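Hi everyone,

Forwarding the result from last night's run.
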Amino acid sequence: MDLGLINHKLVNDEYEGREQFVEDLRLVFSNAVEFNRPAAQQAQSQKELNPHFVMDDLAAKTYAIATHLLNYVDHLELEYFKVRDAASVSFNFRTSSS
């Protein structure tokens, strides 16, 4: 799964619901986090040894960005479902006749 495939599925209306879309996004970013974790840990070690170390490793930067995007997807999902669920609730107020 990659962002190109997600785009293809969006353009061709292949998602049956938002849950599938969110799961695909989560899969892409969690895979990026796991794949780039070792390089990010190595870069962090270098930074601890040398405070002037500049993280120029692409994998370490990708790890940081993917971690942020994964957290952002989780946040958006929570906010979207919260707003969506609140909007779909039907309020039927019945007044009692006295």
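The radius of gyration is 21 Å.

Cheers,
N.
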